[in-house]
Design brief:
The structure is a single chain. The protein has 421 residues and is an alpha/beta fold. 21% of the residues lie in helices and 26% in strands. The strands form 4 sheets. Strands 2, 3, 6, 7, 17, 18, 19, 20, 21 and 22 form a 10-stranded mixed sheet that branches. Strands 1, 9, 10, 12, 13, 14, 15 and 16 form an 8-stranded mixed sheet that branches. A two-stranded parallel ribbon has the order 4-5. The chain is globular and about 50 Å long. The two termini are 38 Å apart.
Length: 421
C-alpha cells in the first residue's frame, strides 16, 4: 500500500503556547532531539548514507496547478466561468494551449496530466511525494471578491492527484482561498477523503500551523510545515484564526518568526524525523535571492532544526544552496500549469521545471545525493524536457548556483546530479 494510505495531518496545538491540541496522535508528541548541526563540506555526493543508517528520498516540486484550463480537460470539469479581465471562460486556456501545441483529446484520463513524470516516479521510487497544490479543490461559486484570478479543480477530479500517488499537498499559497473559505473547507475535506496529507491551511489557526506527518515504515517520519507570505501574493486576511479557516500566514522573516517556528517544530519532532519547511515566498519572476530570505533559510536550519527548505512561488527554477549539508530550494518553478500559449517573460522559460529528488540520511538529516529531472509543460501535461531545454536548465542552474557553491552535472539520461562544497 502506498504511503498516502499511511499519512495523516498531525493536529499539533498552538506552538506559541507550546501545547498540543486535543486528539493529537501520540506519534507526534515529544521534544526536539539532536541539538546543533555541524558544518562540513563534501567533495561529491555519496551514493549511500553512512554504514548502518538508512536514507530517505523525497520528491519535491514547485507549483502544481490543476485548476482552470487543466480542470476543463479532466473528466469532471467545473463550470468554466471565470472573472479575469481578459478571459471569461476557463476553456479559453485550453484553446490557447491547443493553438500553441496542437489538439488535446478531451476528456483526458486522470493520469494524463503527469505524462512522463509517472515513469520517473517508477524509476526513482521516492519515499514521499510533496507538491505545492496551487488551486482550490471545490465546486464552490463564491469567488474571492476582487481577486481577479481564481483557480479551482472540481473535487470529482481528485483522482488526478492519487494517480501520481501524491502524499502531501502544501496549501499555504495565494490560490487556495480563491473560491472563499467554504472552498478551502471543501479542499481540505476532499484531500483528506483521498488520504492525502495537507500542510499550511486549516479550519483554525492551530490546524493550519500543524505539520503534515508521513510515516515511512522501517525508516522514519517526514514532517512538513508550510507557510504563506505576503511577498508571494497571499493576502493577510487569508490568515487562519482561532475561529476562522485560512492559511498559516508568515508575517515576516524576522528572528521572532524563526523562534515561533522553532517552538512548533519542537512540539512535533522526535529523533530521526526529517523536517521540511515549505514556504510560498517572493514574486513569480526573477533570479535574485534577497539576503533576508537567505538569512531566514539559514536560521531555520541552525535554530529551528529544519532539514530542507522547500521554497516556491517563482514560475521558474531558482538557484540551489546546500547549507550545513541541508538543501535550500529558493524557488522550484511550476511543474504544471495552464499557461501554455500565453506570451510574456519568455526569457525565464516558465514552461521548464525540475522534479527534485533529494536523498537524506534518516539519522542525521544530511543530504547525501541530489538528482533532478528536467521537464517541460506541453499539451497541458508534464513531459521530459527536450535537448535544447535541458541545455538551458543546465546553464541556468550552474549560473545561479555559483554564488551558493553548487553546480549540476548532466548525466547520460539527461538528468542532473547536484555537486556542492
Amino acid at each position: 500500500m502506498h504511503l498516502n494510505r499511511r499519512c495523516f495531518l498531525a493536529q499539533a496545538g498552538s506552538a506559541l503556547l507550546g501545547g498540543l491540541a486535543a486528539g493529537v496522535p501520540r506519534a507526534v508528541q515529544g521534544a526536539a532531539q539532536g541539538g546543533e548541526t555541524q558544518s562540513g563540506k563534501m567533495s561529491q555526493p555519496l551514493e549511500r548514507s553512512s554504514a548502518g543508517s538508512r536514507s530517505i528520498t523525497l520528491f519535491l516540486c514547485g507549483d502544481v496547478m490543476t485548476g482552470r484550463g487543466i480542470d476543463q480537460i479532466l473528466p469532471h470539469p467545473n463550470k468554466p466561468h471565470i472573472f479575469e479581465p481578459y478571459m471569461r471562460s476557463a476553456l479559453g486556456y485550453v484553446e490557447l494551449a491547443e493553438q500553441a501545441t496542437g489538439p488535446i483529446g478531451k476528456p483526458v484520463d486522470f493520469a494524463y496530466i503527469w505524462g512522463d513524470a509517472l515513469a520517473e516516479f517508477e524509476r526513482v521510487r521516492p519515499d514521499a511525494r510533496i507538491i505545492n497544490l496551487e488551486t482550490a479543490v471545490t465546486a464552490a461559486e463564491d469567488a474571492w471578491p476582487g481577486k481577479g484570478i481564481n483557480y479551482r479543480m472540481h473535487p470529482a477530479n481528485i483522482p488526478c492527484l492519487t494517480a501520481a500517488k501524491i502524499d502531501c499537498c502544501v496549501l499555504a499559497n495565494n490560490h487556495v482561498l480563491d473560491w472563499g473559505r467554504g472552498g478551502l473547507l471543501e479542499t481540505l475535506d476532499t484531500l483528506r477523503g483521498a488520504r492525502i496529507a495537507t500542510a499550511g491551511a486549516g479550519r483554525v489557526d492551530t490546524e493550519a500551523a500543524a505539520p503534515a506527518l508521513m510515516e515511512l515504515p522501517g525508516t522514519g517520519r517526514v514532517l512538513v510545515f508550510a507557510f504563506g507570505t505576503e511577498s508571494s501574493g497571499v493576502p493577510r486576511n487569508w490568515a487562519a484564526g482561532k475561529h476562522r479557516p485560512g492559511v498559516n500566514f508568515l508575517d515576516d522573516l524576522s528572528a521572532q518568526a524563526v523562534d515561533a517556528i522553532t517552538r512548533q517544530v519542537r512540539v512535533a519532532k522526535r529523533a530521526g524525523d526529517l523536517v521540511v519547511a515549505s514556504i510560498h515566498w517572493g514574486g513569480n519572476w526573477g533570479f535574485a535571492i534577497p539576503e533576508e530570505r537567505r538569512d531566514f533559510a539559514h536560521r531555520l536550519i541552525d535554530v529551528a532544526g529544519v532539514d530542507i527548505v522547500h521554497g516556491h512561488s517563482s514560475h521558474h527554477p531558482q538557484g540551489i544552496e546546500i547549507y550545513r549539508d541541508k538543501p535550500i530550494l529558493y524557488g522550484c518553478g511550476d511543474l504544471l500549469n495552464d499557461y501554455e500559449g500565453i506570451s510574456g517573460h519568455q526569457a525565464y522559460r516558465g514552461e521548464l521545471a525540475l522534479m527534485y529528488f533529494p536523498t537524506l540520511d534518516a539519522a542525521t538529516g544530511k543530504l547525501s545525493r541530489f538528482v533532478m529531472t528536467p521537464t517541460q509543460t506541453r499539451h497541458l501535461r508534464v513531459n521530459r524536457a527536450p535537448e535544447e531545454a535541458v541545455n538551458w536548465l543546465h546553464g541556468t542552474l550552474n549560473r545561479e548556483g555559483q554564488k551558493f557553491g553548487t553546480r549540476v552535472e548532466r548525466r547520460p539520461d539527461n538528468t542532473f546530479l547536484l555537486r556542492w562544497g
